[in-house]
UniProtKB/TrEMBL annotation:
This is DDE Tnp4 domain-containing protein. InterPro entries: HARBI1_dom. Its cofactor is a divalent metal cation. Pfam families: DDE_Tnp_4. The keyword rRNA processing does not apply. It comes from Thraustotheca clavata. The keyword Metal-binding applies. Keywords: Metal-binding. One of its GO terms (molecular function) is metal ion binding. Residues 116-192 form the DDE Tnp4 domain.
């Protein structure tokens, strides 16, 4: 089951408030959609389970909704969250980068940190699944995340197979192809490898 402590109340309120503002432009009064809180709850519940427990039938039974509603709510919630990414994942401007580097006084001119993360799959992907097999014994997609000293994500890229090492992903990272536009003189980000 989804652990409610995984998402802070502030984050949940931000998602619901901003999603609601965006969704109001598209709502059809004839469409009897559920409250956005319920749609997000159904989505989070589904994402918190594996296998049969994440089936739409199980969700329908648990929430007393139609099977198709579980799928629709999940899809709408994910699309709503994805729509908010440009408001949440923001590369800082020149002034913002200077503020970050001033806060990280132990590392002069450092404006952030990059690290790899594995986002696991429930099962082996059908297309080149062996490439997604990780050193941890499961299947996953590899992502690189750049964050600042306050744990705010400034850039995210996911899509490399789980077998990829951070270094391989870093060298092919789209972010570094446009590096000149992302940093001021002498600024850098730290990595563990």
């Amino acid at each position: 089951m989804v652990n409610p402590r995984k998402i802070s109340k502030t984050t949940l309120e931000f998602i619901l408030h901003n999603w609601l503002l965006e969704t109001l432009h598209y709502i059809d009064p004839a469409n009897k959609s559920a409250c956005l809180h319920v749609e997000l709850l159904v989505c989070l519940y589904r994402l918190g389970f594996f296998g049969n427990a994440a089936s739409y039938q199980k969700i329908a039974t648990y929430f007393h909704i139609a099977v198709g509603c579980g799928q629709m709510y999940t899809s709408r919630a994910i699309n709503g969250i994805l729509h908010l990414r440009s408001q949440v994942i923001i590369w800082p401007d020149t002034q913002g980068r200077l503020q970050i580097s001033n806060r990280i006084s132990e590392l002069p001119n450092c404006i952030g940190f990059v690290n790899g993360a594995l986002f696991p799959f429930k099962t082996k992907p059908s297309f080149h699944g062996e490439d997604y097999y990780t050193r941890k014994g499961n299947y996953a997609v590899h992502g690189l995340i750049v964050c600042n000293d306050q744990k705010q994500i400034m850039y995210l890229h996911a899509g490399y197979p789980g077998s990829s090492h951070d270094q391989r992903a870093l060298t092919n990272f789209t972010f570094f192809k446009i590096i000149a536009t992302r940093f001021s003189s002498k600024q850098y980000i730290c990595s563990d490898s």
